[in-house]
Structures are given as structure tokens and as C-alpha cells.
Amino acid sequence: MKQKILATRTIPQEAIEGILDRFEVTMPEPEKDIFTKEEVMSMLPGYDVLFSINEYPVTEDMMTCSSRLKVIANNGAGYNHIDADAATRHGLAVINTPHAVQMPTAELTIALMLSITRGIVMYDKELREKRHCRKDMFFERDMPVEGKTMGILGMGNIGKKVAQLATALGMKICYHNRHRLSEEIEAQYEATYLSLEDLLKTSDVVTVNVPLYKENYHLINRENIKLMKPTAYLVNAARGPIVEERALLDALKNKAIRGAALDVFEFEPEISEEMAAIDNIVIVPHVGTNIRKTRINMLKESLSGMDAYLSGRHPHNLVNPSVLDK
């Protein structure tokens, strides 16, 4: 008998064709696109896997409504929308997509950095609106990145890809992690370990690449953003609440830092009128992996991990390995 997967949103057929000989997949019709929580809970008792698509929240009451459920698969690397602690308590594996998101997110981080440090969005907007653009001979706001220091908050898989790309642009790399990397890895990326405070004081560009854990909530906040250079830029393509939005907006409006570029927001998907009106910020709507090929790769990575777990193997993308002890 085939095991059954319940997908919370519609996904392309090409993403699941490799598993249809072993799994039966249920998803909303394209015109519906998404199941309500009530629909999911009513169907779950008949399924082995719940597949959370596009950060669909998975709460403990959903986990307890089915004795058949074994796996919660997630179409993304970040899983703060899934109660992973509750999943572990109930013996449910949580699977994510750590590999497929790495380079696309790193590429967007670099694109955001260049868009703000070189005024690309500002120039584009002015040309579209006025059909001409000022080009001050000694325009001070922009910054060439070669020879400048990038401070990476979170030197995990994505942070390392960011370092790789930034080094190719001639940037110096420093980083802050919960745990310092080995000397070999530091040498590989030509990266210097610093405390959070020293990184903020030193860096010309600070990029946020940490996951959203409780301890990382407002990691960049009103107090420590004051440590940044007045000529520095902040880039966040990780999770919005890692940066205290009110403090960042105040810093931008008061020119305490030179600029910011964000793919994520503290109160996402809401963007305040105040933020939209600030001219020294670039904003894009959480699109780090919003490329069809990348999204297909993410689906396949998550489904591959799910398949491995259900087959008795230890998948590389098992978020809560302690569930193996249950």
C-alpha cells in the first residue's frame, strides 16, 4: 500500500513525479491553491506525511489529530512556522531543505548589497519617474565594495556562500557565530571571527544569515545598531524579526547608518508606509528562493528526506534527529 502525503498548497507535478510509484499525494486543486487549517485537520488522520508549503503553519493541535502521521515535511530551510519541539515530543520527524536554498539566497544577499551600495534602485526609480537623473560629480552616498569589510552574522551554509561571493568581489570577511569555526574553515573563506559588537563596529556591510531562533529575536536592536559605522549598510535575507524594525527605521531616517536592503520584514507581509517612504532602503518581498527551478529543487529535497526517513534511513535534512530515539 502506498503511503500518503497531504500537501497544504498546490505544487507542480514535476516535483512529485519521482515518488508517485511509492506515495499518493493529495493537494488542493490549482484554482483553490491552499487548504484551510480545518480542512487539513479533517484529512490528516488518513495521511502519513504533512507537507507544509510556503511557510504554512503547523501547530501541535494539528499533530495530535492523527495517530498515523509520521513526518512533517517543509518546503524551506527555515521552519519557525512549525512547532518542531512539539513534533519531537509526538515522535514526528521534521524535514527541511538546507541545500537547495543556499546559493539562491546568497545570490540575493549580494544583489541586495549591490542594489543599495551602488544606488541601483534609486537611479532606476528616478529615471522612470523623471526620464532623467542627477549624477552628482562627488556623490557621497554610494560605496564601491572592493576592499570593504563584510560582516556575516551566521556563517552556516548560506553564510559561507555569501562569503564566497563577497570574496570574489574583493571584500574582506569577518563573521559572528554561536560557535567559532575551525581554523581550516576560517582559512578557506579568509574569514575572521569577531564578537557581535566588534563585527558591528568593524563592518562596512552587515549581512544577516542566521535562522530565527528565540535567542536571535532582535539580534540587531536599538542598542547595538548604534555600534555600526554611519557609512555602513545592513542587509537581511534571513528572517524579519531578527532585526528590530523600529530601531532600523529610526537609524535610517536619522542617517545613523547609510542604508539597508531587506528581503524580509518583522511584520511580514505588511510593509509600513513609513518604510516605503524611506529613500535609503531597498525592499523586496521575501523572494530569496522565488525561482521556479529553485522551488522545484526545494520540493524534491524535502520529499527525498521524507522518503529516506520513512525507509529507515537518516536523511541529511532531518531537523530534529532526537526523534530517532523515540
Structure overview:
The two termini are 25 Å apart. A seven-stranded parallel β-sheet has the order 8-7-6-9-10-11-12, with helices on both faces. Strands 2-1-3-4-5 form a five-stranded parallel β-sheet. The longest helix has 19 residues, at 292-310. Strand 10 (233-236), helix 10 and strand 11 (259-262) form a beta-alpha-beta unit. With 326 residues, the chain is α/β, with parallel strands linked by helices. The chain has twelve helices and twelve strands.
Secondary-structure map with pairings?
Layout: E1 3-7, H1 13-16, E2 23-26, H2 37-43, E3 49-52, H3 60-63, E4 71-74, H4 84-89, E5 93-95, H5 102-117, H6 120-130, E6 149-153, H7 157-168, E7 172-176, H8 183-189, E8 191-193, H9 196-202, E9 205-208, E10 233-236, H10 245-253, E11 259-262, H11 273-277, E12 281-283, H12 292-310
